[in-house]
């Protein structure tokens, strides 16, 4: 494989990947985060914000509801409840320790807070723009009439909401936008809105990331994916560890090994589109539930397609349930279409699933794992060379997986307990928030 020694990745492409994955949670919010980012951009430009402020504003808009996954209630209901601010705090907790997203954490934390109730006015200002953009997007989306003909009605609704909640300067800037029919037409046309957003960001606000920075973001994504189910809270860590080590032992370049590790963290990103009750079901899935579960690799493929600079990433990450005989899912690819990276991740996924502890069983012992892996080779499901490399070095791989997953579980427990305790101290306890016992 040809290696790009000067590889850098668009920050915007990575943020779009996360934003699109959040959209998978509900048809009701599809496009919501990009609409919020667009409205926030228009308000920010009207207020003559700096390039850095605009970047923080728009990129925060793209992922402002990332903390929403920690609720038992229907996601649509949580998002429409303007008094529910816990998810904003969880988003803050997720991002605060991860460069390059740490600068966006406090904006997310305050995006449902009233103007006069936050201690940091500079951050509050950007959060307040997200707040106004968020409610505007919801009001627009609930309308079923010509938006231009009823724009005055929308503005009255926004004014009612904004009283005492939105900074006057921000609200005044928004009101000048209201005078432009083009603003409402752009905001309500998905293709035009996203084209404007794409063009402006790429020309003015984008940054370039190295692979280490993308890896850091991948760890956040794996938290969001895996934390939905405490029984597999360390699964992506195991996949990232084993697949990258296999790639290293197969003489992949350092750059390719890093991409493989990133693929491990991102491989289940499409599970954001699978309902929580399916993800957390302990018994056998129904045909309908199994179909929903199988869709996750399809969504992973198309969400990761945003990261154009690393085209192999989507293939390595999303083809882990394809099989050499062409009977896997979702694309029914066979050995002629599955590159070695995809084969490595498929073997890593099976090995990790077999060896890690699950609530209904302990991880299998070596003899059983070897038996199952070789049976899959005999059935023409997975690659024999990769499997034999793993078996020949079984103890090394298994110790490494176990160590990394133990570390990940400790991080998970600390995040779960600390965040729940902090929220108990900051907010009233609410039935819809997942308690530490079930978080």
Task: Give an overview in words.
With 439 residues, the chain is an all-alpha fold. The protein has two domains: 31-209, Hypothetical protein af1432; 211-414, Orthogonal Bundle (Hypothetical protein af1432). Helices cover 63% and strands 1% of the residues. Strands 1-2 form a two-stranded antiparallel ribbon. Helix 2 crosses helix 11. The chain is elongated and about 70 Å long. It starts with 8 loop residues before the first strand and ends in a 13-residue tail after the last helix.
List the helices and strands and how they pair.
Layout: E1 9-10, H1 11-23, H2 32-46, H3 51-62, H4 75-80, H5 86-95, H6 102-109, H7 121-142, H8 151-162, H9 168-178, H10 181-188, H11 190-205, E2 208-209, H12 211-226, H13 235-249, H14 254-266, H15 276-279, H16 287-294, H17 296-304, H18 311-318, H19 340-355, H20 366-378, H21 384-392, H22 394-426
Antiparallel strand pairs: 1-2
Helix pairs in contact: 1-17, 2-3, 2-7, 2-11, 3-6, 3-7, 5-6, 6-7, 7-8, 12-14, 13-14, 13-19, 13-22, 14-18, 17-18, 18-19
- Strands across the major sheet, in which order? 1-2
Strand content: under 5%
**Remind me, CATH topology of the largest domain?**
Hypothetical protein af1432
Oligomerization status of the protein chains: single chain
Described by the principal axes of the CA atoms, the overall outline is: elongated
Number of domains: 2
Q: From the alpha-carbon coordinates, what is the Rg to the nearest angstrom?
A: 23 Å
Number of discrete helical segments:
22
Question: How many DSSP E strands?
Answer: 2
Mean pLDDT metric: 87
The major β-sheet equals: 2 strands, antiparallel
- The CATH architecture of the largest domain can be named as Orthogonal Bundle
